[in-house]
C-alpha cells in the first residue's frame, strides 16, 4: 500500500527549496484552516497533517532523516516487486505444462473463437431487422407531354 508522503501532502516536488515549501504550506493553511471551514468536520485533521508535513520538511535535519526513510521504503517496495513468485508445491503439476496442456489450450481457443462468432452473428441478427430501410429516391422531374419548349432568347 502506498502511503502519502509529506511532499504529496504539500503538493511539492521532493527537491523543492525551503521557499517553495513555506509558500505551499501558507497556501494550504489558508484554504484548509478549521476556522475558515466550519462546516467541514475533517478540516482539523487535514490541518494537523499539513502542520506535521511542514514541521518535518522545514527543518533540514528532520528532512534529511525523512528523505533517508523514504529512500528505504522505496527500496523495500522495489525489492518486493522484484521477488520471483514462489515455486509451486512439490508434486503439483502445472496444467499448461501437462501433456494435455496443448489440448486444453486448443479447446480454450476454439471456445473463444466460437463465442466471438456467435456473438457477432447474434448481434447482427438482432439489429438487422431493427434498422429502418433507406428512404426511396426522389421521383424524377417529369414534364407534361403537352408542355411547349421554352421560347428562344431574343437576338439583338
- Unreliable spans are none
Helical stretch count? 5
Strand content: under 5%
Shape: flat
Give the overall average pLDDT: 81
Structural class: mainly alpha
Description:
It is a single chain. This protein has 156 residues and is mainly alpha-helical. Helix content is 56%, strand content 0%. Helix 2 (18-32) runs antiparallel to helix 3 (43-58) and helix 3 (43-58) crosses helix 4 (60-82). The protein is flat.
Summarize the structure.
The chain is mostly helical.
How would the blueprint of this fold be written?
Blueprint: H1 6-10, H2 18-32, H3 43-58, H4 60-82, H5 101-128
Helix pairs in contact: 2-3, 3-4
Supply database-style keywords:
mainly alpha, 156 residues
